[in-house]
Amino acid sequence: MLHDGPGGDHRSLLALEALSDTYRVLFYDQRGAGLSERVTEARQGMADHLADLDALITAQGDGPVLLIGHSWGAMLATAYLGHRPEVVSRAVLIEPGFLDAEGLTSFEARRAALSRSPRVVWAGLLAGFRARGVTGDAEAARDSIVGTVVHAFANHPANPYHCPGQTYDTPAWRFGSCASDAF
Question: Beta-carbon neighbour count of residue 2 at 10 Å?
């Protein structure tokens, strides 16, 4: 299971745990996010993510795998298909975001417009005030702020990231702001 982000964590895909009745399901937090090690942006490149996925697949040793990726995870699955197609039996891409330059341009335009909306700006301001009390390592407060803003963006009524009339309420351990900035 390849979660969204970059910067999100595996809990956004826990509804797919029901597949464990038929398949061996492996959830993990990608580098820099969730409960994984916090690493610098220099260690957040695509080659790093592909190497991590290689290591996980090799450690399982059960032959070709089925990759299921959501959003950024679907983009990572696509990159992995180009990197090591022989170890993947099938791939399921859920809301794969952008897979080409035109898609990136469209996403960036929508992201910019929604990020300037009062709802998202207000969430960021409130998160900034709350983050003053966040303790931990040097990045903990920034992770808190960016995670709150990303959640507000995903939950915006004009964003088609959730079903109409419902809220986007995905739990997260820790949003990895450095992981998000790397891409």
Answer: 27
